[in-house]
Amino acid sequence: MSSEHAVSRRKFMGGAATAVGALGLAPSGLQGMLARYAPESRIGRQDGGYDALAKLSANENPYGPSPAAMKAMEAAWKYSNRYGYPDGDVQEVVAGHLGVPRDHVLLTAGSEEVLKSVGIALLGTDKKVVGVDPSYGSVYRYATGIHADAIKLPLLDDHSQNVPAMIKATNRHHRGIGFVYLCNPNNPTGNVVPAAEVRELLDAIPDDVPVLVDEAYHHFVEDPRYESAVPYVKEGRNVIVARTFSKIYGMAGMRLGYAVAAPPMLERLRTYATGSINALVKWGGAASIKDTKTEAKVRKETLRLRKRSTEQLAGWGFEVIPSETNFFMVRTGRPVQEVRAAFREEMVAVGRPFPPMLDWLRVSVGTEEEMDRFTATFRKLFAV
After folding, report:
1. Shortest CA distance to 119 belongs to which of 240, 256, 233, 200?
2. C-alpha distances in Å from residue 266, one per residue of 120, 130, 191
3. pLDDT digits over 145-204, tens only?
4. By mean pLDDT, which of 33-42, 263-272, 307-316, 318-327 is the weakest?
5. Contact, 197 vs 182, CB < 8 A?
6. Which residue from 50, 70, 236, 368 puts its CA 20 to 30 A from 163's CA?
7. For residues 216 and 259, what is the distance between their CA atoms, to the nearest angstrom?
8. DSSP-derived 3-state class of residue 118
9. Can you tell me whether residue 332 is helix, strand or coil?
């Protein structure tokens, strides 16, 4: 952020107090507001205010499932009372879409279940996962939960992932490494690891160390240096790719994802996957993949609004990390806890803190109306 736009505590608190004044909060009550909406608090779901929120905190697709997916799920209700029901051939559809055999795909309840299954299957209690921080933290939490450990490496100065450091750490601790984690594009920074660096990583570490590549946001990438890691699975490399239907396909609340890997690896993961995928989402998932028109429409609108919003912020003098996802990070110069709470008083939900980037705010790309609310609130709070 340029020095002329550095935000002092006094200036931010003044902007926040102005924002909350319309809600009947005196400036002296601001600290209470911050405590009430601490980062660990969940967005209120029982107070009737959830639907009124501009929901820019969880990297969701604000448009929901495509019309084709909705139609398919509506038709699948007739299977809701059955166990051995037709499922829209969703596994075959996914495999065909990727150009891999059916037995290279494991369906899961969201890609989160892939990450959890990999953690349990490959770490045990005596192995470590190698990755960067900040990144998508679920993998590290799973490691801690099973009394395993993580080697978390800092990002480079440009907020990119430090592949040479990952290689060095993996080779140094080879026998103690369960797998390497690469979120690509990375969450929360939004940037990519170029294809050349992914190959460098795979070529430089021992073949018996699996690499988990999380591609939750791959649909939104424009950077020509990026490539999916699925071809490495086809080559027979020790790679697991995790994908989800929660982002571009708008099915976060329905829970569907999948892992792509060699069959022996998927058998190891299957032991820890619940298999709790409902009939409706299987039909909706198969229809979503086939509905390329809606996918392209969502992508185009998301990229348009991301570009517009980030250009506005940059124009006001705030540093924004170039993003290849449906979210972006802006450096506000204020603690995220304070910023998030102030936005919440304006009925705009924004991202949680991502240590150590504690003055960077992650913002999901919502609808045009939601992004207008975000920029209006930003201007009010930061007096720009």
Report:
1. 240
2. 13, 21, 28
3. 877 899 999 999 999 999 999 999 999 999 999 999 999 999 999 999 999 999 999 999
4. 33-42
5. no
6. 236
7. 11
8. helix
9. coil
Q: In what order do the strands lie in the sheet with 128-133?
A: 105-108, 257-260, 239-244, 211-214, 177-183, 128-133, 149-154
Instruction: Report helix, strand or coil for 188.
Output: coil
Strand partners, 179: 129
The single residue listed with the structure tokens 């939750």 is 216
CA pair distance 113, 244, nearest whole angstrom: 10
d(Cα 320, Cα 331) in Å, to the nearest integer? Answer: 6
Angstrom distance (rounded) from CA 254 to CA 274: 15
Element (H, E) at 1: none
Confidence tier at 7 by pLDDT (50, 70, 90): low
Q: What is the pLDDT of residue 66?
A: 97
Long-range contact set of residues 41-46: C-beta below 8 Å, sequence gap at least 24: 43/349
Q: Could you tell me the pLDDT band of residue 144, with boundaries at 50, 70 and 90?
A: confident
Q: What is the DSSP letter of 353?
A: P
> Kindly report the CA angle at 301 between 298 and 303, in degrees rounded to 5?
105
User: Where is 122: in which H helix or E strand?
Assistant: helix 111-123
Token reading at 28: 């002296």
pLDDT digits (tens, 9 = 90+) for 67-106: 999 999 999 999 999 998 999 999 999 999 999 999 999 9
Which phi and psi angles does 216 have, rounded to 5°? -60, -30
Reading the block at residue 98, the tokens are 């990727």
**Residue reference for tokens 């329905």:** 254
- Contact yes or no for 78/278 (Cβ under 8 A): no
Is 331 in contact with 275 (CB distance < 8 Å)? Answer: no
Residue 298: left (phi > 0), alpha (psi -120 to 50), or beta? alpha
Distance of CA 174 to the CA centre of its chain: 28
Based on DSSP, count helices (H) and strands (E) in the chain, helices before strands: 14, 12
Instruction: State both tokens at 17.
Output: 């107090």
Task: For residues 268 and 96, give the distance between their C-alpha atoms in angstroms, rounded to a whole number.
Answer: 23
Q: Helix (H, G, I), strand (E, B), or coil: what is residue 224?
A: coil
